[in-house]
């Protein structure tokens, strides 16, 4: 069964065009949490989410779905939670995979509320283990970052960290990865938002970037996005760069 789940997960990811390797590391999970928290419209919910409290509300429903998606644990093909990815994250952190994880399996309508309802019982039962598995405490997160100096540190902007870090002649690989526009396997991330950027052009540039390989994907995507709407792109990436100092 596990082999079949892995194959299904792989196929779904390939269809979407990104890999989102598991297990996720502390940098990647921190980005997922912080990015979704920034979508909060009501400060009272933000404060609860930071404390891992998930009260039933429309905002929280969509926060939960956002987190599963940004952690790479949401399958857009059938709007299901990828339980094998979660199981792998648990095992990578020395945790037993709870039997209750199986209850999270299966498709949903894709609505924020249904994704929340599908997963909230598992979350409440396994809250401490989920926090540990996904580096959801400051102590565990800081410990990982201290052991991985090759990763962009907390408190440092992407622009600062990536300065001079070309990869095989690819000028934009480092920054485009940390902006989460491409993933660790040089594949375009299809769900990363660029607020205010014209959607048809964004999709055109993503398709153009997918036609190449390796770290050149990042450069092709960046140059395409910049060519027709340089002001939009500059403003969006500047905002993401400023935010990156605090995730």
TrEMBL record:
<comment type="similarity">
    <text>Belongs to the PBP/GOBP family.</text>
</comment>
<keyword id="KW-0800">Toxin</keyword>
<keyword id="KW-0964">Secreted</keyword>
<dbReference type="GO" id="GO:0005549">
    <property type="term" value="F:odorant binding"/>
</dbReference>
<protein>
    <submittedName>
        <fullName>Uncharacterized protein</fullName>
    </submittedName>
</protein>
<feature type="signal peptide">
    <location>
        <begin position="1"/>
        <end position="19"/>
    </location>
</feature>
<dbReference type="Pfam" id="PF01395">
    <property type="entry name" value="PBP_GOBP"/>
</dbReference>
<dbReference type="InterPro" id="IPR006170">
    <property type="entry name" value="PBP/GOBP"/>
</dbReference>
<dbReference type="GO" id="GO:0007608">
    <property type="term" value="P:sensory perception of smell"/>
</dbReference>
<dbReference type="GO" id="GO:0005615">
    <property type="term" value="C:extracellular space"/>
</dbReference>
<dbReference type="InterPro" id="IPR036728">
    <property type="entry name" value="PBP_GOBP_sf"/>
</dbReference>
<keyword id="KW-0732">Signal</keyword>
<dbReference type="GO" id="GO:0090729">
    <property type="term" value="F:toxin activity"/>
</dbReference>
């Amino acid at each position: 069964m596990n082999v079949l789940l892995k194959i299904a997960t792989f196929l779904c990811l390939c269809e979407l065009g990104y890999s989102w390797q598991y297990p996720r590391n502390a940098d990647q999970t921190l980005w997922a949490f912080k990015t979704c928290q920034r979508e909060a419209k009501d400060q009272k919910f933000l404060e609860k989410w930071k404390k891992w409290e998930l009260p039933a509300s429309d905002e929280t429903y969509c926060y939960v779905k956002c987190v599963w998606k940004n952690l790479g644990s949401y399958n857009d093909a059938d709007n299901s939670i990828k339980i094998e990815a979660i199981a792998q994250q648990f095992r990578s952190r020395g945790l037993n995979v709870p039997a209750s994880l199986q209850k999270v399996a299966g498709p949903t309508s894709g609505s924020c509320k249904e994704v929340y309802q599908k997963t909230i019982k598992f979350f409440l039962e396994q809250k401490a283990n989920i926090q540990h598995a996904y580096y959801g405490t400051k102590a565990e997160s800081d410990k990982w970052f201290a052991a991985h100096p090759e990763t962009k540190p907390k408190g440092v902007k992407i622009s600062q960290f990536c300065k001079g870090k070309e990869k095989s002649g690819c000028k934009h690989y480092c920054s485009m990865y940390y902006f989460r526009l491409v993933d660790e396997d040089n594949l375009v991330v299809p769900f990363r938002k660029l607020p205010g950027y014209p959607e048809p052009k964004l999709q055109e540039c993503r398709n153009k970037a997918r036609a190449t390989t390796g770290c050149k994907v990042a450069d092709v995507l960046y140059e395409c996005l910049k060519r027709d709407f340089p002001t939009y792109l500059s403003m969006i990436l500047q905002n993401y760069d400023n935010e990156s100092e605090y995730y």
